[in-house]
Amino acid sequence: MTKRKSSHLASRPAAAHQPQPSQPHLPSPAAIRETIESIVIAFVLAFLFRTFEAEAFVIPTGSMAPTLMGRHKDLDCPECGYEYRVSASDEVTQEGTPLGDEKLVEESTCPMCRYTADLGPGNPQHQSYPSYYGDRVLVGKCSYAISDPKRWDVIVFKYPGDASVNFIKRLIGLPGETVRISHGDIWIRRGTGPFAIARKPPGKLLAMLQPVFNNDYMPKLVALGWPARWQPELPADGSTAGAWHSEDATTFLIDGTASGPRWLRYHHLVPSYNEWKMVEYRKPTQPLHLKPQWITDFTAYNTGRSREQASINPAPDPDVLGLHWVGDLAVGCTLDAESDHGQAVLELRKGGREFQCRLDLATGRATLAISGDDTAQFRPAALTNVRGPGRHRLLFSNCDDELRLWVDGSVVAFDAATTYPDLHNVEPLESDLTPAGVASTGARMKISHLRILRNIYYIAVGEHYGGQLITDYVNPDFSQGIMALIASHPQQRTVEFPLKADQFFMLGDNSARSKDGRLWGSTYWVDRNLLIGKAICVYWPHSWNYIHTPWFDIPFPYFPNFQRMRMVR
């Protein structure tokens, strides 16, 4: 509180010999000119930087999710605790004007346990789930002045239909190529040659893989009677000797005494909305006998439902649960080897084929293999540091007709190509209901932090698109459910997009919710002169509304979200 000066001090007469105040010193004209010039130069440099070097760009929609976020909510699943994000773009107009309470997102579905959470006013956590603006991205505007755009770059460009609007998508097709989208994959033809699948570099693939299941988030459900997704596979005689066992359904151990391989298999047991309600209200004491499903192009970001939609039907719409089977997968885990002999095996299945990576604990040698007589000669090998007792993080992928292995975050270089020819295994079989596995052959080990990821599935649509569901099925019948539709092996569309000189083809990572080159009509390409630049980094994700400082509990508004600041891959 400011204290007022005493009146006797204010009225005291000045001393006779008190010096008079000097006149204020005015800057010279040269100094004033120098200051003005400095300010002008600073503005000019900032303008030049913005014009020729870099510019900030705000992600407006979820077409690039989960790589980049538009307006969204940050959520914690109340059942399994998994953190995920859901789109809130439909709450506002393109200009950011709120559309009213009926458009507020009040439901979402967790990608791990598939619990549909209520985010409405009746939920005590409602105030914890505000809608945030999209990521702020720094764009290098001179990137393509010194080098040509590369496939899989994330690029900002002017929309061909309205040059005043900026779009951000991933570059798929280059000038002179023909792009084909078929069964979720990108195929490229140059000139009149054959089509070849477009493979992502290792860094791009890691950035673009999308989560299917993380086993660290299931213990609570298993305690309620839900079947574990990772289950030991017993031999034909039913013997449990030397089999995998677990006390918490998250960490699995094996003693390596079995004479042959012992498998731990992933079952894609996905609960429905009604099954979740049964678990919530009835609390079953007996194990539920559910049927595994095929992995689909489910994207949790697209499961946000407004108050208006939830009032009509509380269950999620079938299309947001994924309409298309995805066979390009990756399996990851933490391996704690306790033996200096035996093998650890990672396996992925797709369309009747088995893709394996065998790790010899005695030598550290990794060997890849594909089932089938036509791939008997496929045996790439490499030396790794997975030798003897020790802990290692492993990731094995089968994406874009190529096998890859990462050990402790580094991609392994094999002595031969790990790519393979088209095996035409594009239809799911019964074996794809258990699409991943981990095995021990004579090795004592522990497996934890198991996770399944999937490749992006690009949906084949084009000029025929009628404005309804984005699907590549021809005349789909959803009346019996998505799994029944997939089991019937429906006809799936293939589309092609030929490109001329200086024409580029762009797609969004969120293929089911992206207005990209597939949906632009006859002008499906982007001319070179419409390219603005390459997305470099997310320099400002949404800030946290308030973070309380430790010890003093002082609220800190707009606290930077450091963990989401990242390079754009």
Please provide a brief summary of the model.
With 569 residues, this protein is mainly beta.
Observed structural traits:
single chain, 569 residues, mainly beta, Jelly Rolls, 8-stranded antiparallel β-sheet, 12% helix, disordered N terminus
Can you describe what's shown?
- The chain has 2 domains: 49-200 and 296-319 and 461-569, Umud Fragment, subunit A (Ribbon), CATH 2.10.109; 210-295 and 320-454, Jelly Rolls (Sandwich), CATH 2.60.120.560.
- It has 8 helices and 34 strands.
- The strands form 7 sheets. Strands 1, 7, 8, 9, 29, 30, 31 and 34 form an 8-stranded antiparallel sheet that branches.
- A hairpin with a 2-residue loop joins strand 19 and strand 20 (353-360).
- The model is unreliable at 1-24 (pLDDT under 50).
Total helical elements: 8
SS-derived structural category: mainly beta
How many domains make up the 3D coordinates? Answer: 2
Helix content: 10-25%
CATH class of the largest domain: Mainly Beta
Compute the number of strand runs. Answer: 34
What's the CATH H-level homologous superfamily of the largest domain?
A: Umud Fragment, subunit A
Which term fits the overall shape?
Answer: globular
Give the integer mean of the pLDDT values.
Answer: 86
Rg (CA only): 29 Å
Please mark out the parts with pLDDT under 50 across 5 or more consecutive residues, or reply none.
1-24
The CATH architecture of the largest domain comes to Ribbon
CATH topology of the largest domain: Umud Fragment, subunit A
Percent of residues in β-strands: 25-35%
